């Protein structure tokens, strides 16, 4: 129990330090690094390199760059979680902050703008902590909340682990009813060490530690579909391994930013997060 207590205390201290560093970053202007894609890079390996989420990498660069990701491609890497957006006509800081679940004061601090400033249409700004999957832009330039459902994937994937769903895809709300963070996957509570299987035939494109996801496996399937399995206790496959539907790939754990034994499961279609419940059978 003594070792467990030391480990828990160490994790808590590290968590508080990360929160403090993030708080200080949110008070500063956004800083961007240019990264040149190298042979063998994936979205997930780049995200791990900079300790950012995949959604931040995607939301900070053009779809053309993300979808090709060829060696030599130059990516824009921000110094914190969030995304870049172009201001739609008629939008203001207050509404954009609300739509994307970020805070107006943080948006103003990151971009060095006055809270009362009327934003010009087409201007690009950075939204700290926002998730690009939370909102979609319609054909007429308006923005609205995304559902995350893709009917083309209906009944495509098998359940990766037997357990209880504890957190759904989409917005997590606080007890007072206000919007919290956007959850890009499905959390499934299961006993520590329970087997996790591949939801579909594919090839492993990432196997290792991935920031807040802890020990993680990412599998590339057909037609632009990828699945992610996070917070694992141990991994049973390596990058490049072919896997079949139902094959053992890892074990349930609580690594990374996790408060208990569970699987964080994500489904993506062309890099865009999809509600796993719309694809599982």
Describe this structure in words.
Strand 18 and strand 19 form a beta hairpin. This protein starts with a helix and ends in a 7-residue tail after the last strand. 21% of the residues lie in helices and 31% in strands. It is an alpha+beta fold and 281 residues long. It has a domain at 151-278: Glucose Permease (Domain IIA). The protein is built from six helices and 19 strands. It has helices spanning 2-26, 43-49, 54-59, 63-68, 93-100, 104-111, and strands at residues 32-36, 74-78, 82-86, 124-128, 135-137, 143-145, 164-167, 170-173, 179-183, 186-189, 195-197, 202-209, 215-220, 225-232, 234-235, 242-243, 248-251, 262-269, 272-274. Strands 7, 10, 12, 13, 14, 16, 18 and 19 form an eight-stranded antiparallel beta sheet that branches.
Oligomer class: single chain
**Could you name the CATH topology of one domain?**
Glucose Permease (Domain IIA)
What coarse outline follows from CA principal-axis ratios?
globular
Helix proportion range? 10-25%
The structure class reads alpha+beta
The pLDDT mean sits at 84
Distance between the termini: 41 Å
Radius of gyration: 19 Å
Q: How many strands appear in the DSSP assignment?
A: 19
List the total number of helices. 6
- The portion of residues forming beta strands comes to 25-35%
Tell me about the largest β-sheet.
Answer: 8 strands, antiparallel
């Amino acid at each position: 129990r003594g070792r467990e207590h030391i480990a828990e205390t160490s994790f808590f201290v590290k968590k508080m330090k990360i929160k403090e560093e993030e708080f200080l970053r949110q008070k500063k202007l956004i800083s961007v690094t240019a990264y040149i894609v190298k042979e063998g890079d994936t979205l997930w390996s780049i995200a791990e390199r900079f300790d950012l989420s995949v959604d931040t990498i995607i939301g900070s660069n053009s779809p053309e760059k993300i979808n090709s990701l060829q060696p030599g491609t130059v990516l824009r890497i921000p110094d914190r979680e969030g995304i870049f957006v172009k201001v739609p006509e008629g939008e203001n800081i207050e509404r954009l902050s609300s739509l994307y679940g970020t805070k107006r004061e943080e948006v103003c601090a990151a971009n060095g703008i006055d809270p009362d400033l009327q934003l010009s249409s087409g201007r690009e700004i950075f939204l700290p902590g926002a998730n690009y999957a939370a909102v979609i832009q319609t054909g007429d330039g308006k923005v609205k909340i995304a559902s995350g459902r893709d009917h083309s994937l209906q009944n495509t994937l098998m359940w990766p682990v037997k357990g209880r769903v504890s957190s759904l895809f989409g917005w997590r709300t606080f007890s007072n009813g206000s919007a919290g963070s956007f959850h890009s996957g499905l959390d499934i509570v299961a006993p520590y060490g329970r087997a996790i299987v591949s939801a579909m035939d594919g090839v492993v494109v990432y196997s290792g530690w991935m920031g807040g996801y802890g020990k993680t496996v990412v599998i590339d399937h057909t037609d632009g579909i990828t699945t992610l399995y996070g917070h694992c206790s141990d991994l049973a496959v390596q990058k490049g391994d072919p896997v079949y539907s139902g094959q053992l790939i890892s074990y349930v754990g609580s690594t990374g930013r996790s408060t208990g034994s569970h699987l964080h499961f994500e489904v993506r279609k062309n890099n865009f997060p999809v509600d796993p419940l719309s694809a599982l059978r």
